[in-house]
Each structure stands twice: as C-alpha cells, then as structure tokens.
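Researcher: Re-running this chain for the archive, since the previous output was lost when a drive failed. Same request as before.
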Amino acid sequence: MRPRAPHTAAALLLLGAALVTACAPGETGPVTPAAPAAPAAVTDAARLTYPLDGYKPTDEESRGIERAQALLTADCMQRFGFAYRPPEQPRPAGTGTASRYGLTDAPTASRYGYAPRGGARPPGKAPAQDLGPSGELALGGPPVGGRIPMSLAESERTDSGRRVNGVKVPVGGCGREGFLRMYAPREGAVDALFVFRLEAEAFSRARQDARVAKAVAQWSRCMAEKGYRTDDPVSPQQDLGLSADAAGGPRAVAAAVQDVACKERTRLVGVWYAAEVGFQERAVEQHAETLTRTRSELDARIRLAAARNG
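Model: Regenerated structure tokens:
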C-alpha cells in the first residue's frame, strides 16, 4: 500500500476530527493546561465560536479550495494526455460545532434521535473514472520506496523513475501534485493539519479538565435517573445498545431527548466550551508565530482557489 497525502480539503477535515486524542504540534512543546473560564449558559452548540477559528477556512472557502485542488489535479493529468474528470464530491456537512459535544439541540433530538445528519443517509461514492493502467499510474504515482516530497518545489526536483507518454510522473502522481500546489507550493509550508491538531489537543485536554469531568459525571447520573447507563456524552449510542439502524427509532429518540435535557440541567456544554476556549487561547499564545504564517498561507490558498475556479 502506497502512502498518500490527503487529496481534498474534506479529507483534511475528517482526519482533523479523528485526532481528538493527538498531541498538538509545535516548537515550544505541549500546550500548558489553562484554567477554564466561568461556564457559559450554553445549550445548542451549533453557533459556538473558538479562538482558532480565524486560522481555518470557512465552509464556503473549504469548498472552493477542494474544487480548485481537483482542477489542479486535472491540469496535471492533461500533461500526460488524459482528460481526467475529478469525481463529484458530496456537499460537505460543514465544519460547525453542532455535534462537538454530542447532541445539544432539543428539536433535532426529538425528531431524529441519534440518526446522523438529521436522519439523512450519507451519499454513495461516485463511480471512479476508468483511466487504464497508464492513467492510474499518472494519477497515483508509482509505489513509493523513499521519502515523499513535502513541497511542490521538492517534488519537482525528485525523480520517481517512471514516465507516462514521455512525461515524468511526480512522486505520488497528479493527486499528490494537486495537493502540494494547493497546500505546500514552497518548502517550509506549515503542516496542513497544524490547526486541526491544536484543536484536537484543546478538545482532549478540556475533556480531562476536573470541572468538565465533574459535569460529565453529573450528566451521567442524570441519564441514569431515567434508566440510561452511559458516561459518554458525545456518542452514547453503543452504551445504550442502539445500532445504526435503530439510531432514529422511538427508543433512540427518547434517550436523545433525555440526553439533551441532562446537558441543559448540568450545564455540561457551557462548562466544556469554556474549558476548551481556555486551552485554545493558550495555544494561540504559544504558537502565535506559526499561526500568523498559517493565516498568511491560508489567504494565499484562498486566492489561488478563486483564480483557478474562475
């Protein structure tokens, strides 16, 4: 299996979400624990904002970057004589905070229970274009035996040892080239996942904060009063014995309604949010220089996407 970099902005978002227990990167070591601010009276988490938000693209900007990256990959494939059609990407669900602390919206809970995306089924994958062996080689590159170039500049001076129609195939193929043109055109670019890792670290540390742990315990006791045994406020379905097929059924709806009611009663969301904001603020202070570069590179990426998307 050949190593690959994420090829779309959506992939970056999914990977960032999976890193909720990862350590934050940085030149100055891990984020120092910060005392959480006074808990806010928060119930619905959909519109919460965070200190690191200013270093990330908006949902609309993410869609533009993703589309431009696909077109840059197609530009590369043209060099090899292939009319590559990037697969249609489903409209992303967005990078909002509605499910960051589990269910928090009472109307959604009473209507859909724990069913994902408001009860909608995720769209199926679009069929892949048949490019043939040469086209697949141009798109994905040959098996990688050594270091993968981390910038477009490095990629351009690295020989993969393979050619298609007389043209040198980039290491990682056109998919990798499209990613590097968008995220690392020059050497020394900030890791595309830097902000997501800082977010993941702040989220994980906030979950372990004593005040959050206390609020989670109170929420768990509140749930137990109604017969629901769980200590996981984010994804309690497994504890509650709810399969994916039953996530929107009557039993799930009843549990979901109680889940939200208990969060409101214990002020869990406000306590957790305040703690996470505190850790993010400390991260912004500790990584100010890198985050300034991150914002500058993001602005350049947004401009490139706008120019390529026309």
